[in-house]
Amino acid sequence: MEFITMRPILASIVFSIIGIAILLIAYFIIEKLTPENTWQQISKNNNVALAIVFGAFIIGISMIISAAIHG
């Protein structure tokens, strides 16, 4: 059995936390830039189109963060 070092595991955890933080910051920036409260529009008014747009936004930002971290 090979010896597993903790450095790659720790780096993975740190990069995951940084990626999630960047994703949340990007979401809150977009939330401030939009004229309406998007979460209220999605949850209370059942705005499916806005939910699809924000889902695509989150996937897009996640892919960019992943590519930046992975190299």
TrEMBL record:
This is DUF350 domain-containing protein. Keywords: Cell membrane, Membrane, Transmembrane, Transmembrane helix. The keyword Oxidoreductase does not apply. Its main location: membrane. One of its GO terms (cellular component) is plasma membrane. The chain crosses the membrane at residues 9-30, 50-69. It is a multi-pass membrane protein. It is found in: Cell membrane. The keyword Endoplasmic reticulum does not apply. It holds the Pfam family DUF350. Belongs to the UPF0719 family.
